[in-house]
Amino acid sequence: MRELQEGADRRLRAWRGRAAGGAALAAQPWHAARERLRAAEERTRLPIANVLVLVVALSLPFWPVIDSRWLRILVLVGIFVVLGLGLNIVVGYAGLLDLGFVAFFATGAYTYAILSSPASPALQADLNWWLAIPVVLAVGSVVGVLLGLPVLPLRGDYLAIVTLGFGEIVRILLLNVVGLTNGAQGLFNIPRPEFAGWVLEALDHWYWVLVLASFILAFAVGRMRASRMGRAWEAIREDEDVAAGMGVNTVKYKLLAFAMGAAIGAFGGLVFAGFFTFVNPSSFTLLVSINVLSIVVIGGMGSTPGVVLGALILIGLPEVLQFDETSRLLSLFNPIVPFADTSLWGRQLASARFIVFGLMLVAVMALRPQGIFAAARPQVRLPRASGR
Amino acid sequence: MFWFDQLINGLTIGSVYALIALGYTLVYGILQMINFAHGEVFMLGAFAGYFVLLAVGGDDLGGATIIPAIVLAMFVAALASSSAAVVIERIAYRPLRNAPRLAPLISAIGVSVALQNIVLRMTGGRDRVYPRIFPGGSFGFGDFQVGYIQAFLIVASVLMMAALLVFIQRTRTGRAMRAVAENRATASLMGIDVDRTIVTTFVVGAALAGVAGVLQGLWIPNIRGTMGFLPGIKAFTAAVVGGIGSVPGAMVGGFFLGLTETVGRELLSAIPGVHLPNEWSDVIAFSLLVLVLVFRPTGIFGERVSRRA
Amino acid sequence: MRASSRGVRWGWLAAVAALATLVAVACGDDGGGTPAAKSAQPGFKVVAVNKGQPIKIGISSILTGDLQALGIPIAQAAELAGKGVTVEGFSIAFERKDDTCSPEGGTSAAQQLINAGVVAVVGPVCSSSVIASQPLYEKAGITTVSPSSTAVASTKPAGRGVYKTFFRVTYNDAIQGPALANFAQNQLKAKSAYVVFFNDAYGQGLKDEFQKAFKGTVAGSEGFEKGATNFASIVTNIQNKKPDVVFFSGFFAEAVPFITQLREKGITTPFLSADGVRDEQFIKLAGKHAEGAYLSLPSPKLAGSVYDKFKADYKAAYQKEADTSPFTAESFDASTVIINAIKKVAQKDGDNLKIDLAKLQDAIAKSETTGAIGKIKFDAKGDNAGGETPVTFFVVKNGKFEAFKG
Fold first, then answer.
1. Which fold has domain C174-297?
2. Chains A, B: CB contacts under 8 A, how many?
3. CB-based contact (8 Å) between C68 and chain A?
């Protein structure tokens, strides 16, 4: 087994050497490379900074400024963090531009909704939310593989438009296959998660569950990235032909990327359905795919903190713009700004919040084209032949 | 005649798609970026044409006066769309020329969202309706009737596409555009002003979209801030089916998509046991897209394979 | 041995997942899962309004995007009802929140309004926001009166009792749909109908109710998406099928291009539609093509002194006609119902004002109002049961809506 592993690493090393245009790395001592790999894995192993972030995140509901409005938005942000983590695998790690991620989000939400809502026209299964987790993950990854299969030969923007098409197809199916999805009316009164009499309903509980879930997912995704699978994804992202030439099974790893991303996306949908207790097709439009992609790119492709920050900005900001505090803050400028009543700006800003949102995307990209947390790519780096 | 009518419907909407798709494909050919805000450029053209027609008399126009009015509307629309595209290129895309591939895409999405919402806010979310100045009615033999407006739309689009082909093949600027698309660095070494050529490309694509906006407005009178989004996506799809980066590909792709949505869907519906009303047209269009790309992964006319996302 | 141990771990995960799936499915079959949310008592509180502060009423409507043309006039009409009104010397202030017509936006707006200390809410405007936010409002004990949610599900939530804190002024699809079908059969003598519907909750819901009640043949039924302007393909199909009536289930924004393209094709089949299209804007934009169109309105009548006064006040306040947009009169009435109830239950408490939300809900539930749309009173589910003839029909004649007389 070790030989296999070493073989893969050697291949990867050789490929890096070629990609860098440097001399062959064969002369490099093997253990140095090994050390680097271990360090990369080490980084995903809950260092103190991560624990601190987790503690701060978990304590947020106790902060005096964080009231239920903030928490409600943070829960929505959390759902998009989950989606962002999923898409990050597909776009950030494997470099497959997916404009139809909403398909998986919808799959997860509707799988649970159909299996639990009393309004579900096809079956009354009363599936428990917690037990739905494995079901949704399984269905999500199957759908990911199914949608991934036909697009295997496609690259770049061809892939983007086909995935966009899949997203739209899924939404139109949800609208038109009324016998299963109840069409545009949607499925309502979806049960909230319940475990031994404890119903997950309070906002802070939801928030904590989402923070923990995001951390577990981020950890799992980090492990995947440091694994052989992650290295294969990176190889495919950097150059698919070379990767294939070096013996990376591109079909397998591309499908794995779709499956993993889709499963996480579907989990996001499950949370959405359990939290809002209502799903209808208008929540699963192309705009969701665009939003999630923007989160990933704005945060910095492949970066996990980037996903969190991206979701905070893209999902949180438009709502915060219509908060009363924003209005009040603006009216503070009244003595400074001549010839204008800044107290009126609040309402105007609220009604123009999507204009602000659009311009902000442009501004962030202009200032940080690599994203806010420019991801260090490639993640696994072997020493150059010249030595550093 | 049912099938003939659907064929004309398909060709009409197809020519709108094709005109918009050309803008996508021109920009893609030269910058390898998806100009997501292109649908909004089309929308701005439609609004510019609307205001021109209102200013020169609106519904009172009649007889021969409609010809100069429509020409003026198209001209101003082309101008407005081009100016918008130049500004967008300068602000949102040029600073990102050497940025990672997805940065300009997100920037373009931002422009698209902002423009939609600016126009929505200015119109209060209400539709504007084009003056109905184009003569109604149709011509043809017996059951084979073509509406004047549809005929005008198809002919005008085909003429513009022909003009574009001549422009790209025969003029100096056209050659420069092809050169930059081929290899930006080499073109620059050959003394071509790359920045200028890129702006020209945006201008040409936007002008076509602007005129398409007026043409659609004359045919389907309702215009609104979000009107560019769906045709934008469809046109992008058309450009990809044709082979993104290829000019003839965008034209063929546009007509192909238009016909698929109308004649194609009805043909499938004609199979006994298959019932596919209008709400399924996008499913059919996108499924066909998948099929085409599975067999020809780079579209009908595509050569270029982009390697990375 | 790292690779092999990883393989084992994945195997474990797969096994656990498979087992859990089995258990989950088994549980589902037993029906042993959780029952749907039980109807709990609303969390009514008593709100104290301090001296000098206004009484706050919330508005949850769509204020951005392409439905703002619907949502902003609704918000304005609601605010009109509270203009200059004082209760025991306390003025009334409205808090507007944009709910983007979505479940996410609806719940976020609800939370913001609840936290802002509103005593009641006009809205939400769209059924999807209503359905998602009902549990929140119920828990907070805040009564909502929607001017425009037509989905049957709003007052008939499957698997639970009704929401006590939800009322609506408009009538649901189950009332309007059959009335439209009857009209097509009896007045228009239609044996076949072609149905064109907006593929959203409103359009699909109304179309379903229509088709259920229509006894003739449905020659075809085709949907279109939000923002559709191109109906060429549908029109060609209608020309081919030659139905006796075309039933359009949607809003005026799409009805205008549809009827224009239908008539320009020379098809004179009667056009029948409902409240979403009964809008001055429809006549204004479709012009001569709107002539002869039949439209239903689930309110008894838009006439009478209250309506005239509302129309005049609205025009004075906002410099535009109230009936250029649907549901403005309904919104004015929803707001009026709330304000009247506040007047009834508000009690002076020293310098402050006390409003018991339980009593407020009760007052709204028992209220009987003559509003701009006619009589309004609520049944046990929260539906408006005020109208004696709940659905009236109009025909467009000489650029005006005329009441249809048999």
1. Rossmann fold (3.40.50)
2. 152
3. yes
